Amino acid sequence: MELYLISAGVSGLTFITAHYLLKSLVERRAAEKKRLTEVVGSGHPRPIRELELSAPLFQRFFKPILKSVAGIIVRFIPAFGEEAMAQKLVEAGRPYGFSPREFMAVKCLLAGFSGFALYTASGLLVLPLVQHVAVTAAGALMGWLLPDMLVSSIIRNRKEQVERELPDVLDLITVCVEAGLGFEGAMMKVVEKSGGILAGELSRVLTEVRMGKPRREALREMADRLAVDDLSCFVGSVIMAEQLGISMGNVLRLQSREIREKRRQRVEETAMKAPVKMLVPIVAFIFPALFVILLGPAAIQIMRVFGR
Fold this sequence. Notes:
It is a multi-pass membrane protein. By secondary structure, this protein is an all-alpha fold. Helices cover 85% and strands 0% of the residues.
């Protein structure tokens, strides 16, 4: 009986060991295959139809129509201010891949649509001629200015996000450089370990450097695209350190300290503005209710006394 138990135990232990060894081997092969597919790519390319259907609806349907309409409109749009508009779109991250002329075409379309919509609405309301014209002009002006307002909002949000991300990114780059990595290797670690706008721009810088563009030029173009003062100061310091042969670790540590100090000052400035901003809702909403509660009974009593 004991011999049977020992044989069963040995057999069970052998089975469990073989199972786990086979499982670990299969998982390792699967991980290697997945990693090879990520690096090299699968041997079976996706069909063009599948790639087209995987694109967003705006990219597949609305963008071709918009391009066709823009191609007609841009013939009549002058090139005045095209460089400034191009810089503005670059700072906004090229939303929907619009070119300056296409963006102007969108503004014209929205102005015409808004003006026509309010023209129709004012016609249904039977307004006088002067008001009719004023409402139509206001609608066209609103449609013309709305894209600019949206782009300005996107630019402001992007700059605020870059300012929030910059101190942490600089700390990570500083730690990597002091640990022995080169500056490009430190940027690669930032791209791998973090996400966001700044990490995407650093990834673009690394791609441009691999394609042969000088690093200082790629960094300078990144600073011009984002147009953030702290980032421009950091890029200028890095380029200066590279030209003069100054220790990169000391420069990065100093820049990180200064940028964190600037962020602390901005937070303190925002906190000091809070009481002034809170004054408007307090005066508009809280004080009237408070006056009603405090003076209401007295006013009622005075009315009763003088009403007799």
